[in-house]
Amino acid sequence: MNVTRITLTWVVSCACACLFAKGKPNIVLIVSEDHALSSFGVYQKAFAELDPTPELDKLASSGTLFLQAFCSNAMAGPSMASLLTGKHSHANGFLADGDKFNGAQNTLPNLLKAKGYSTAVFGKWDLGTEPTGFEHWEILADENEFYNPLFWSPTGNQHFEGYTTDVITDLSLKWIGEMQAKKKPFFAMIRFNATRQPWVPAIRHLNLFDDRLLPEPDNLFDDLKNRAPPARYQEMEIMRNLDPYNDLFSPKPENASPSTALNANTVTQNNLLKMNEEQSSAWHLAWRPKNEAFVRENLKDEALLRWKYQRFAKNYLRCLKGIDENVGRIVSSLSSVENAENLIAYTATHGRFIGEHGWFGTHWMYEETMRVPLLLSGNVGFSDSQKIIKTALVQNIDLTPTILDSVRIKTPEDMHGRSLLPLLEQNSSSADSWRKALYFHYHAFPDEQMVAKHIGIRTSSHKLIHYYQFNEWELFDLDKDPHESLNLFKNESYQKQASELKVELDKLKAKFRDDSDISVMPEEWRRIYRGPEARKKDPK
Fold it and tell me: Is the domain of 409 the same as that of 522?
């Protein structure tokens, strides 16, 4: 299968009268953070030869894949809020991490619970309020705990020994088993945190891929000179912003100052302190020879960048391997019950750069972070053969309407998303009439990655992005430039295209009633973030 240019991958299993379930299928929604499509084996992207996701690939082989799936805001909390509500961030009220989610509005768990479903959520939550609409929840007290985590629940707090991804699955399967025994329909949302920075793998995977040299993206050494200023003022460069000690587990530098230590990312060190003796010993045993080799080589410049890329990308794939294994455990548990109807959906909050443009971060409307995996699978109306929706532009706001539609619950009128079931009913995977363009709005600046606020529109062939606080624009021809390396906004040949996209962007903003302030900031404010001291790398 030749699959290209994938951002979002969802696996959705729908039920049917061809598509509707006879009764109420059990629904399991699995959400990973930062799942880059380049690391999803079924899409045959950069790391396909490494077979990083065999269990997800197996699930996809009998499900429906959406090749053009996207998020509406490439930040974890806002994306999750949009998925649960079927609405863009400005409408659901959760604009950026740190906001408080209004759980009283129409949400997927609220609506399923009202129709007799038992509901539960496990793993990462990070929406600022206690889960609403879930009868049961066991959520991470700290989203940055990857070993021996503390979980919050309605009945109290509890520590668990083990790797967090495994623990999340253990808790999920315990509850699912109880629901299966009661023969009561259930909705379980399982959200994994393993693929977030600083990418802390399970002990069993610490040496995975040690014998392989990962392929480098063609634009690993991108000078960004053909992009708008925001691309040059970010803080997500592998070379400049990834710390070998705190992010890549290398030896602590001898010249590290106390002030540096205080300001550095301490997530890794905190996790090491929480390890038991056996875990700590295995961790250091695995890293010691690799780190000794790194010290001996004394790498500089391009060689150091290449080393950082390899260390980061391998750790990311190792973390994803843990998620993939646990997806296999979940699917196996669901299939073990005879005659049970199950709907399984797999997606991600957003994507991640794995070395493209020399970056490791998220948050952008660029393809690497806007696109997500979307996969629907199960035994409710699907054949054993794989179905691929190739061209239809779908978004995370569509997932809740789809699940509601599959169990015959009317989608509330205030939701922006649309049920994907009509796409599954089509004889052809080509769905050019489905949706002409996608709307995107990122609301957080300044933040740790220094990604400027932006709104934009994406069609099947072009993308227009407006960094409105700075009045900076980007236009990309996705057919000719899939890596988005050349900003065409000021190109004379594309002025008609730019004008038309501006009009369509305004129409979408009005359609979704996004009244967010998109005015240009005062010159003095802009000088702080675009002045000569803000980023010395800005080419002239």
Answer: no
